[in-house]
From TrEMBL:
It comes from the Bacteria. Keywords: Cytoplasm, Elongation factor, Protein biosynthesis. This is Elongation factor P. It comes from Labilibaculum antarcticum. PANTHER family: ELONGATION FACTOR P (PTHR30053), ELONGATION FACTOR P (EF-P) FAMILY PROTEIN (PTHR30053:SF12). Gene3D superfamilies: 2.30.30.30, Nucleic acid-binding proteins. InterPro entries: Elong-fact-P_C (IPR015365), NA-bd_OB-fold (IPR012340), Rib_uL2_dom2 (IPR014722), Transl_elong_fac_P/YeiP (IPR020599), Transl_elong_KOW-like (IPR013185), Transl_elong_P/YeiP_cen (IPR001059), Transl_elong_P/YeiP_CS (IPR013852), Transl_elongation_fac_P (IPR011768). It is found in: Cytoplasm. Involved in peptide bond synthesis. Stimulates efficient translation and peptide-bond synthesis on native or reconstituted 70S ribosomes in vitro. Probably functions indirectly by altering the affinity of the ribosome for aminoacyl-tRNA, thus increasing their reactivity as acceptors for peptidyl transferase. Belongs to the elongation factor P family. GO terms for cellular component: cytosol.
Length: 189
């Protein structure tokens, strides 16, 4: 048990039967009335963000979560097979636990987040950016090489489709932001 004075960004709490991480919090002491804490809570399973206000000093159940480094090995009918990079223990996780599983290449390092008390996998964090080769995209029009306002679809090596600027061609390496599946920049080979 902890109180609202122990709040930190990234802390995982048990609230209304679900696990939430605190993404923002602010202690407020109005001129009249008791102090309170405004928070933004992100549901660990669904990713939905809610606003909530706690009275100051309220007791909250803290959930212990552990981030463990894993390497993605392969995908089969059991799910996504990962290997812990320190203990070499292998596990298979369901696709629902991944944010953008189609941006995952064999050998990529990810962080699997587990509920420490129950050893239940909660979600898997991909690296913030991945570099992929464009396997197919329509050729850009001549003269549009500097314009980034127009986008076109491009298929990358894992089969995912990403919107890229017109100057990107088949065979180019691009950096992709896995959090919102957006093009970041072209990478020199």
């Amino acid at each position: 048990m902890a109180s609202t004075t122990d709040f930190k960004n990234g802390m995982c709490i048990q609230y209304k039967g679900d696990l939430y991480t605190i993404t923002q919090f602010q202690h407020v002491k109005p001129g009249k009335g008791p102090a309170f804490v405004r928070t933004k809570l992100k549901n660990v399973k669904t990713g939905k963000v809610i606003d909530n206000t706690f009275n100051s000093g309220v007791k909250i159940d803290i959930a212990r979560i552990e981030r463990r480094p894993h390497q993605f090995l392969y995908k089969d009918d059991m799910g996504y097979n990962l290997m812990h990079t320190e203990t070499y223990e292998q596990i298979a996780l369901a696709e629902e636990l991944f944010n953008s599983p189609d941006l995952l290449k064999e050998g990529d390092t990810v962080e699997a987040v587990f509920h420490a008390d129950t050893e239940t996998p909660l979600y898997v964090d991909l690296p913030a950016h991945v570099v992929m080769e464009v396997t197919y995209t329509e050729p850009g029009l001549r003269g549009d090489s500097s314009s980034t306002s127009s986008l076109k679809p491009a298929t990358v090596e894992t089969g995912a489709t990403i919107m890229v600027p017109l100057f990107i061609n088949t065979g180019d390496l691009i950096k992709i932001d896995t959090r919102d599946r957006s093009y970041s920049e072209r990478v020199k080979a």
